[in-house]
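Researcher: Last one for today. Full complex below.
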Amino acid sequence: MTGEECQLLWFTAWVSALSTILMLPFGLATAWLLARHDWPGKSVVETLVSLPLVMPPVATGLILLQILGEKGAVGGFFYRHFNLDIAFTWRGVLIALAVMSFPLLVRSTRVAFEQVNPRLEQIARTLGASNTRVFWTITLPLAAHGVIGGMLLAFARALGEFGATIMVAGYISGRTATLSTEIYHAFNNGDDAHAYRLLGMSVALAFLAVWSSELFMRRRKTAK
Amino acid sequence: MNLLLKRILLPLTDFPLTVDAEIQSQVTAIFGPSGAGKTSLLDLIAGLRHPQSAFVQLGDRVLTDTATRANVPTRHRQIGYVPQDLALFPHLSVRQNLLYGCKDNPGSSSLFSFAHVIQILEIGSLTDRRVTNLSGGEKQRVALARALLASPQLLLLDEPLASLDTVLKSKIIPYLARIRDEFHVPMLFVTHDWHEVQALCGEALIMERGSIVRRERL
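Model: Here's the assembly. Have a good evening.
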């Protein structure tokens, strides 16, 4: 493994991890709302959350590019006020990965919250606990294995993201290239040895992430 | 105890819960067959279910009045609840379960001391154990102690002895009698065992299909 490949692996891993961590508060809030509350239009929110799973990643990427580009609503705001580019930078990679892995985080976390017996939360309230305290001391600890499993799954999804990333951040070697975009680039340019080494790294990393996720989910089941 | 339940109307699956009653006995049984609406009534008093109409007053505190849209949140009702499945927090130790209700309850934490409660219920040796490792009778006493330590003004007990065999039942009944006699906390005691009613209660409300059909003084 060359130094350049190590750097690429490191960049892909940390930007995937950061995207999962950034999404976590939103994922927890969305999953909790979907698991514990009913409101008019809930099915619309459920569908919107799942959209990145079923839409072509390139289409999601194009939507993100419209929003995050220099002329987009969000990208334009940051460019005008902070002289900060999002599209075609590592920030673009971060957001693309976060959006694409969000549905997996929400789905796993929602199931974990649904499996917490609501009676425990109700009894905690009779003992004087506020909704916030109930969430932090009862719901979240009891759902922790599922939440961590969901985070690992989202991380694994982010590691392999290609379509949205290439649209939002393009392929800029040493700046926005991730494992998957580098594999595509290397293979297209006939550098097969480089592409297959990266492929091996991708498989190993993804295997580790999904395997850990399965272990956490299994621990949750046996803990019940 | 003075618990006033007026104009209670809560739609259930097969029939509505409709109750009008004033309860004054220290320990009152709610007696009736399964599915009569007994647990729903306790849930409503605890503020866990929202009725179509209701006026619930405990002592001089109005807890629910749908006419004026008054509704004291569950956490501020100071009503202890021991549900049928006990709902002990499985990820916490016995001590952490017991102390859970001692927080967020300003002004009421000194009503019963930790030492006194665990002495009366004889659970001092259990405090460092995980609740998942307790026997049925031990879990029952821990759930009772946890509810008491939150210093409730009313204790709701939903078939607390239903899951126990006859031998364990006869061991737990004296603990409930101790709670009644030592702490003087008013109790609403849901059961469908008339022997439990006779052993503990001063009055029984007999429920059928969501309504109180008879009252008996004991």
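Residues 3-90+152-217 of chain B form a domain with the Rossmann fold fold (CATH 3.40.50.300). Chain B is about 30% helix and 30% strand.
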